[in-house]
Design a protein that fits this description.
The structure is a single chain. This protein has 84 residues and is mainly beta. Helix content is 8%, strand content 60%. The chain contains one helix and five strands. A hairpin with a 5-residue loop joins strand 1 and strand 2.
Length: 84
């Protein structure tokens, strides 16, 4: 965990997604990794999570920075899933 100059906690991570989806009537496997970040109280929650924990998240996509247009998912909600 790092802190902004104002002292706000920030955590970066990579989320992995795997699912089966229907596309043009055909089932396909979908796998991807997506950079994500949490700020404030949510960052403290995420920093305590074990690597590989199963989560359901909600957030918004934004550019990584003014110089890098790479997408980053900014997390608003993290739900830890049990038994999955």
């Amino acid at each position: 965990m790092r802190r902004t100059p104002a002292g706000i906690p920030v955590v970066s991570c990579v989320l992995a997604h795997e699912s089966r989806q229907i596309e043009a009537g055909v089932e396909r496997d979908v796998k991807l990794e997506l950079p994500a970040m949490a700020i404030g109280e949510l960052a403290q929650t995420l920093s305590a999570a074990a690597p590989g924990a199963k989560v359901s998240v909600t957030g918004f996509m934004a550019a990584k920075s003014a110089r890098s247009r790479s997408p980053v998912l900014h997390l608003n909600i993290i739900e830890f899933m049990e038994g999955i």
